[in-house]
């Protein structure tokens, strides 16, 4: 059986080859207009799907234009940062190379999440249009009941014991989706892509969380530089094609 997959993000216990060179960061930008805000769950799900979209994009591997940046990033710490934009800031962000993913509106009575993901850059080379965007202000909430989980749809389970801002949780869900993607076979990846990377995000119950931790499913473990304590396990990726 495969070993349980987990990653300690943002710095600790990395091998020497993982710390060489310039640290890379993948930026996610969520659209937050003055009068419309996405729901919490839609933002988290859309962020995870955006990460999967760029991983699967033909520009991200082989001879693709983003392949060198994606390879350098994935060979190091899979660092992600979430920022927000509105109005002209969003339009400027959309003009940069990247992929915009729209949500489903889950958990919302009116708004649909929009998240744009950009190819990784060095932490000191983030385009100015993205660098100046705010990290704060990404605290969302669900304003409608969440639907029942659909059979065989992958679920990213949030820890019930941690409090994270929406922006932090979006990045963590992106990590979990990426770990699941890495763990899947080529056929499994194709199947997920064909389903437009369908997934759900939910908060696990306390007993359920302990049961999930005892499985071999991918789990995100954070180094604790922001918001959570070092070693915190934040999200578990429960994909039906992965070994429990």
TrEMBL record:
Which residues are the signal sequence here?
none
- A UniProt-annotated Pfam family: PTH2
Q: Cite the InterPro entries for this sequence.
A: Pep_tRNA_hydro_II_dom_sf, PTH2
Please name the GO terms that the record assigns under molecular function: hydrolase activity
* Enzyme Commission code(s) on record: 3.1.1.29
Reading the lineage from the top rank, the first entry is Bacteria
Q: Which reaction is this enzyme known to catalyze?
A: an N-acyl-L-alpha-aminoacyl-tRNA + H2O = an N-acyl-L-amino acid + a tRNA + H(+)
Q: Which UniProt keywords apply?
A: Hydrolase
Query: What SUPFAM superfamilies does the record tag this protein with?
Result: Peptidyl-tRNA hydrolase II
**Name of this chain's protein:** peptidyl-tRNA hydrolase
